[in-house]
Amino acid sequence: MTPRRPAGADAFPSPTVEPASTRRPDDASLYAALDLGTNSCRMLIARPTGSQFQVIDSFSKPVQLGHGLEASGRLSRHSMARTVHALQVCRRKLDNHGVTRMRLVATEACRRARNSQEFMRAIRRETGLPVEIIPAEEEARLAVISCAPLVSLRTEQLLVVDIGGGSTELVWIDLSDVETAERPRAIMRLADGFADPRPGDARVVDWISVPLGVATLRDQFADVEDDPARFALMSWHFEEMLAGFAPYASAGRASDNFQIIGTSGTVTTVAASHLGLKRYDRTKVDGLVMTTAQIDRVIRDYLALGPDGRRNDPRIGRERHALIMSGAAILQTLMRVWPTTRLSVADRGLREGLLYAQMVRDGVVTPEGLNGVA
Fold it and tell me: For the whole model, what pTM was predicted?
């Protein structure tokens, strides 16, 4: 399956914006965002506060929705049952908090599965939740805007990478024509679409959705028993999928004004391992800047541990040990292709983007408050 490319300026319609006077919720209103991915079901419930939001409740469960999808092209009965059970828990949380403003989305596994519409009907029937399947471009846009607070004011060329369970989204953004102080806010304005930037706006040079994530890449090389060989093959295969991405042609020429922001469980796990965290702490991970040497050191440590060692390593966790090497192969490939000494770690992604998009639309969060990273 080849990476998906933007089909044109109308690849994804801009959201309808209603006047604030006709639809302005109370500042204490709660919002919810749910990300149903290939491997996990995750939800946030939050309250808007100025230019940010405060998380009130959260949920995360590894449902392995895409298990067996590579071979069959369908979501399995057991995977769907696990996912519906997790969504029932989410429904109870939403009801308990009285949440009425929400966006609940499904991504790559449901985009690819032949029986995904049947599954959407089952979710409606069993939970009443309005889960929708979103296209790859919207998933990429939402991941990008969630990272706006981490954009350095010095950044002129930005690569945002979202390593998911079933796909990896890469978005290359040119900020060189944007005033320094405006760069984080320019990223937020990409919520309206990637095409037709105005003068002085951020410009999306190219974006791509590679149909390889931590679960799908692992499944493709599950028959390779040698750990280092499997890692090398996964890295090589992922790099092959980047050939159609326009900035790949300029690989090796990254400048001091280039920034990579990585958002995914892989990136945050590597960061937590680097910090030696036996208990995950988001406040120490989100916004951390790691050098390529530090990333390589963690990955070499993972390889030296082997499958049994990774399974018992508290820094990795039992829910991620089987997926960490495929994610690390993707991460190390990107750091090799675009040589840079630093990676900004984002413990944020699709859910945060969904929350920002809803709150900005309703006028209860103001992007003007974003200051970025000096």
Answer: 0.84
